[in-house]
Amino acid sequence: MLAGSCSAPSSPCGELGLARLRFPAASAKPLADGTCRAGFKRVTWSALISVVAMASFVTEVLAHSGSLEKEDLGTRISRLTRRLRRSRFVIKIGGCSLRRTGCTFLVSSICATLGHCLKLGEVCNMISKKYSEFLPSMQSAQDLVTQVDKLSDDIDQLKSRIESEVRRDLHVSTAEFTDLKQQLERDSVVLSLLKQLQEFSTAIEEYNCALTEKKYVTAAQRLEEAQKCLKLLKSRKCFDLKILKCLSMELTIQKQNILYHLGEEWQRLIVWKFPPSKDTSSLESCLQTELHLCTEQSQKEEKTPISPISSILLAFFILGELHMKLKSFGQMLLKYVLRPLASCPSLSAVIENQPNSVIVRFESVMTNLEHPSPSEVFEKIRLVLEVLQKQLLDLPLDTDLENEKPSAVVLAEILGDVIWEDLSECLIKNCLVYSIPTNSSKLQQYEEIIQSTEEFEKALKEMRFLKGDTTDLLKYARNINSHFANKKCQDVIVAARNLMTSEIHNTVKITPDCKISVPDLPSPHEDGKLEVQRVSKSQCNELVNLEPENTLDQHSFSLPTCRISESVKKLMELAYQTLLEATTSSDQCAVQLFYSVRNIFHLFHDVVPTYHKENLQKLPQLAAIHHNNCMYIAHHLLTLGHQFRLRLAPILCDGTTTFVDLVPGFRRLGTDCFLAQMRAQKGELLERLSSARNFSNMDDEENYSSASKAIRQVLHQLKRLGTVWQDVLPVNIYCKAMGTLLNTAISEIIGRITALEDISTEDGDRLYSLCKTVMDEGPQVFAPLSEESRNKKYQEEVPVYVPKWMPFKELMMMLQASLQEIGDRWADGKGPLAAAFSSSEVKALIRALFQNTERRAAALSKIK
Fold it and tell me: What start-end ranges are recorded for coiled-coil regions in this protein (predicted)?
């Protein structure tokens, strides 16, 4: 671009091919410093080039629109282009002149700065000469500017004409094109809808023809094609909804029609015959049940290489109803054929092949088995499924259903999915569960059942009834160790609960010599023990005898003689047998059996007090037996874990094989029950003594009779308890219990008599006679043993078990003694009377028994 300074020698004034061009204005004048500046107008060459390039396009548009004038625009544009080129050439020449003039002005300015060296006249002459040379070149430049302005105006006019006329015609053409395009699209949609309607109508017509000819597979295919056409029509949202409703209704009616015909054919080809009775679980009903599979094609039916049943199934498959139909058939097959075969050992399946059908029925076989053998059941079921596979599910592989080839694989898998879950559950519950051995020694024989189960599943997979790997049936059979442990534990718990809920009063007598009838346990370290014993014997002669002179009795830590429930004895035997079984079982089984034994005792702790609650509260004998049962169990629990600690699985040998933690609970359980019975008996004793009218006014016959009756009732109750508990409770427990109850009665009698304020001589005599009755008959309640001769020892030891027995004797003495005898037995607080009563109690009795005399006062003064 031209820099604008005439004195700039390096300004590219001549390079007019760039985007912008400046021309000096006509009014440009030289400045005082010797330079000149001229105005310029800008010309956009890119616009001119664009116009030239679009000339042919605009010409065509105007020609088609009919608005082109006589003079061709292309011709005018070419002429303008040539004039522009000439202008550029002239401008280049003028640029050279300007460049030379600029240099001259630069010299003039330099000369002006050096004016002190030159004369002013010479400078003025030189300037005038140069200016006269510059005027012609400037005039030619102004002419060129005028030509460029005119050319620019022509270009603007042409541009405005294009915008006003050509664009308007383009908009009109675009709108017409859009309308035509939309019309074409609408016509295409309508044509597509008509084509689909035609296909729908054709499919329905062909369907009706095929259905009339009983070509069910073809009819199902045509109906499926109609269904697809209707689906495409529904996807067109612009379609009339009334027509769609009519088409949908027609399609639904036709589908139900073919399903009805297929159902009729299905019932004709597959016939179930049931007994008249509604009870289908009995053996007689099963023997009258039959399944008929027809294999003959009807005359009107389509002649195909496949069986009629298979063609019906194919039609159901095409219509999407095959799964429901096979599900219904599978449920009936399971209920009336497979489940009876799996649950009844005397039933066997019989297959009869007739010319036009195959019949599946049952026959009964004599057997002594309570539950069927798994191997036999598997064989029976496989026979039935093979017939179904051959007659019902064996479709040919080349049956083409629109590039889909349903084969025997599809149908068999569908039926297998329907019945397998229930069938496997039935086989497990009715066969495999009962085949689990009850003893660990028979586990090796179970391998045959596992093998037969594997063969059964393999056969089902070959018939395509099963898919995938191992099923629940085979997993159950292989997991025999866990199932054996579970069954064993379940049987143990069930047996234990039955024992707990049995009658308690059926008892057996146990002695210190009694042992649980369990085989001797093998020693885990026999070799080591023998070695230790040899060492001990070799050193025995060198050691001093360190044994104490007085040794403990061999039964010191044994349970005393008593009676326990027979069920509890069997319960402990069950626990020992279960732990013995655990010693020969696998680790997993041993752990389960061990904790099952612990669960037995937890169950006893919860069940027995609740189940027998009413009897334990009302019957003293049962309370005593329950007490003995709990002590018996606790006694064995002390050493039960220790006996088996080294013989169980290693995982149980870390200190967990113990039952000692259960001992306090069982002791507390027995003690609480017996103490509750003791409190009840104490309450009855006190209630009977309450009818003695406080032993006051014994001179009254009625009062004396009431008191005597109360004493008799108390003694009778104690004797009855002694009889009930005889040979039941251990001797020491028996004596303590009877002593406690007798002591309660005597304490009540002593308290009532000492509370009297006045006791006459006659009252004293009668009170003495009542106490004499207690004193004479009281020891008789101590009869822990059935042999009377052996009970005398315990009757002589009554003061040991009855703390109030000696005070009761002293009371009887005071009722018949004189003041002197009372004083002598007091003996200044050191006599037996002082040991039995306090001084206040003795003084109260003296005041009640004796009148207020000097002798009484003297006696009272001695009681301190």
Answer: 141-168
290-294 β-sheet, strand order: 270-273, 290-294, 357-364, 347-353
CATH of domain 674-862: 1.10.357.150
Task: Report the DSSP beta bridge partners of residue 508.
Answer: 564
Other C-beta atoms lying within 10 Å of the C-beta of residue 188: 10
- CA-atom Rg of the chain in angstroms: 63
- 394 burial via Cβ count (<10 Å: 0-12, 13-18, 19+): middle
Are 227 and 251 in contact, with CB atoms under 8 Å apart? yes
3-state SS, residue 729: coil
Contact of 359 with 387, CB cutoff 8 Å = no
pLDDT tens per residue, range 689-737? 998 888 888 888 999 999 999 999 999 999 999 999 999 999 999 999 9
* Three-class secondary structure assignment of 213-251: CCCHHHHHHHHHHHHHHHHHHHHCCCCCHHHHHHHHHHH
Of 15-24, 168-177, 393-402, 664-673, which has the strongest mean pLDDT? 664-673
Whether residue 756 contacts residue 776, with contact meaning beta carbons closer than 8 Å, is answered with no
For residues 346 and 365, the answer to whether their CB atoms sit within 8 Å is yes
770 close to 808: Cβ distance less than 8 angstroms: no
451 CB contacts (<8 Å, ≥6 apart)? none
**Within 10 Å of residue 272's Cβ, how many Cβ atoms?**
14
* Residues 813/825, Cβ–Cβ less than 8 Å: yes
Q: In the 3-class helix/strand/coil scheme, how is 392-455 assigned residue by residue?
A: CCCCCCCCCECCECCCHHHHHHHHHHHHHHHHHHHHHHHHHHHHCCCCHHHHHHHHHHHHHHHH
* Element counts in the chain: helices (H) and strands (E): 33, 6
Tell me the sheet residues that pair with 543: none
d(CA 829, CA 823): 9
- Is there a contact between 637 and 666 (Cβ–Cβ < 8 Å)? yes
What is the distance between the alpha carbons of residues 148 and 106, in angstroms, rounded to a whole number? 30
Contact, 507 vs 563, CB < 8 A?
yes
> What span, in angstroms and rounded, lies between the C-alpha atoms of 698 and 74?
162
* DSSP 3-state percent helix, strand, coil across the chain (nearest 5): 70, 5, 25
DSSP symbols for 48-70:
HHHHHHTHHHHHHHHHHHT---S
Record the tokens describing residue 586, joined without a space: 């696998």
Q: Identify whether the C-beta of residue 234 lies closer than 8 Å to the C-beta of residue 212.
A: no
